[in-house]
Request: fold
Amino acid sequence: MMRLPKFEYRVPRAIAEAVKIMADSGPEGQFVAGGTDLYPNIKRRQQTPRTVISVMHLAELNQITGDGPMAVRIGASVTLTDIVENPIIKRDYPVVAQAARSISTPILRNMGTIGGNLLLDTRCNYYDQNYEWRKGINFCLKKDGDICWVAPGSSKCWAVQSSDLVPVMVAIGAKFRLASTLGERIIDAAGFYNDDGIDYLKKRPDELLVDIHLPPTNGWRASYQKLRRRGAFDFPVLGVAAWVKTDQAGGVQAAKVVLGGIAPSPIEITEASQALIGQPLDNEHIAAAAEAAYVKARPLDNTDFVMNWRKQMARQYTLRALKELADQG
Reply:
């Protein structure tokens, strides 16, 4: 049975107190909210913090404020269940509720938070194993080893970004607010993720994700489609977020197609957007966008399903996402 090692557990009551504890803890500190990802990782010795700082009791991180026409702010410690059930999110940002509903199981959604899903550690078949299994292969580049077993000739870690909410946030243009003892900053979701399985966030270890800012709902709509082995519980091995804004005649004014689950960071397919902008959202142009997604998708053998089949599914799931938006129009 895997057990948690000993660590100091701190429960601050204010953001300033939380970031001060983290600054004092240095590289051995770790923030935790629901813990549905961190605690299993600690049990497997993938992460080994000496100080764990709970942010679940910070009032500012547990609120949803605003509405679609004015924009919405979601605290990073709001649970996924609250996202799914919130009437404003369901009405004004149904794609966010849809993606959150696809995460894990109801019990884990009661514990897991939106911030935790957005900061989810990258995943890989060679990394997400217990300590003894990883020791048996002499570990991997992401933790304790010097070889990426997915691509042994590469100096880069290819663990994949496996959040359901990340491609959605990138597609709709969300922003994240971070805080530390040095102050606050706001960063676009699209610029928050690195294409590196180890250094996968443009976030300093001492920074706390405070809240997520959803843009006003000024005529755009979005969809999310998820590929996984089972209909529940599993992480995505491919996620497709599609976003469009159309004019009164049905022509596409702006569009984004973002793929998740196939690389260390979400991938925006600009060629797919170009196939749609200035055109009607019809079968011909949807098919062109889906083909562009297929061409750019390059999954590796680091998660569930055969990688070539996952590449084929990039076309099919982009078709599904865009056809859903066409039906909504």
Notes: The chain has a mean pLDDT of 96.
